[in-house]
Amino acid sequence: MENEVIRIGIAEWAVSREAVVLRTAGLGSCVGVVLYDLERGLSGMAHVMLPDSAISRNKKEEIGKFADTAIVALKDSLERMGAVRLRAKIAGGAQMFQFKYEHESMRIGERNIQAVKEALHAVRVPLVAEDVGGTNGRTIEFHSKTGMLMIRTVNVGTLEI
Amino acid sequence: MLDPLEKDVFKEVGNIGAAHAATALSTLLGRPIDIEVPSAELEGFEKILERLGGAENYTAGALLRFTGDVEATLLFLMPLEDAERLVGQLIGEQFRFFGEMHSLGVSAWEEIGNILIGAYARSISDWLGLSLHVSVPASAFDMVGAILEIGLLNSTKFGNMALYIDTRLSSLGDALNGHLLLLPDEDSFAPVFKRLGVDPNGK
């Protein structure tokens, strides 16, 4: 039987204790972050848009939007559900537009990747696989049963990590 | 939610801007372009993506930034195949992105974006007597969700929502469909309201 697919929109996050497929579509400069405990069948995903929640004016509604808040929320929720051995996989952080004059916000992909890695380090969750940077948009699917993260692009094909 | 007064102002901005952009496109192609009444909304990210055909819709995008009295991101978006047809008409032969003539087509596509969005910007700045600078165009050919994200970054004031003014352009004969999407930065429309003598807080 096919596992249920949980769709995570831009700036959203979700966790599950079931055998599921966690999916987020059209990651550009955003980073898709997966935390999971394979042995206990627990998994979660966030579609992170920005590095730092310090600029947020609606913290409660914007947990999934920022690297720092999203990763803490994923870890805490999964641990409350019984996770012991959490691992992380990430994908995204592309630079979609090549500008002749660089504006700081255009480097947001790189800044997101760095912020996600720092936040994972801060909560001591090891990063076991990544597909980040470049210039292509990505749709990702995490299969909680196997721990496989599938990455699809429209221009350069499909990858499994 | 936008109040009715704000909505009217934003729609009028869309009307004036997109009408001039459509005229520019129609001149470029030598045939009429249909233009829909613009919609102006404050909506969740996912709703905006639905309007554009879903996050994975394979899309050609041209992006320009407005700076000066109004700060905003303007995106011209077209399904990839329609954009290929449009570029093909301009360069006079069949065209595919990522093929042999890719860089020629990208230049043509960016020039189309430049002309349309330049017309949009000029008409708004003339109408309002505001100073508006337009950046050089940049382009991307990918999933529309990935293209759109950069336009959503400066909208954090509203939670997971963004303010947008969208106008659909189409040419039925060639089945060309496009969106001109204006995404203002936070609070960047204050000078527009001021110039029009409108208090957005209604007090």
Summarize the structure in words.
The complex is a heterodimer of chains A (about 160) and B (about 200). Chain A is α+β, with helices and mostly antiparallel strands. Chain A has one domain: 2-Layer Sandwich (60s Ribosomal Protein L30, Chain: A), CATH 3.30.1330. In chain A, about 20% of the residues lie in helices and about 35% in strands. Chain A has two helices and ten strands. In chain A, the strands form two sheets. A five-stranded mixed β-sheet of chain A has the order 1-3-8-9-10, with no helix packed on it. In chain A, strands 2-5-4-6-7 form a five-stranded mixed β-sheet, covered by helices on one side. The longest helix of chain A is centred in the C-terminal third of the chain and has 15 residues. Chain A is globular, with a radius of gyration of 15 Å. The two termini of chain A are about 25 Å apart. The mean pLDDT of chain A is about 90. Chain B is of the alpha+beta class. Chain B is about 45% helix and about 30% strand. Chain B contains six helices and eight strands, in the order H-E-E-H-E-E-H-H-E-E-H-E-E-H. In chain B, strands 1, 2, 3, 4, 5, 6, 7 and 8 form an eight-stranded antiparallel β-sheet that branches. In chain B, helix 1 packs across helix 4. The longest helix of chain B is centred in the middle third of the chain and has 27 residues. The model of chain B has no long low-confidence stretch (mean pLDDT about 85). The chains are: A alpha+beta (about 160), B alpha+beta (about 200). Chains A and B meet through strand 3 of A and helix 2, strand 3, strand 6 and helix 5 of B.
SSE diagram, text form:
The complex is a heterodimer of chains A (161) and B (203).
Chain A: E1 4-7, E2 13-16, E3 20-27, E4 31-37, E5 42-48, H1 67-80, E6 87-92, H2 108-122, E7 127-132, E8 138-143, E9 148-152, E10 158-160
Helix pairs in contact in A: 1-2
Chain B: H1 4-29, E1 34-35, E2 39-44, H2 45-51, E3 58-68, E4 72-79, H3 80-91, H4 102-128, E5 132-134, E6 138-143, H5 144-152, E7 161-171, E8 176-184, H6 190-195
Antiparallel strand pairs in B: 1-7, 2-7, 3-4, 3-5, 3-6, 4-8, 7-8
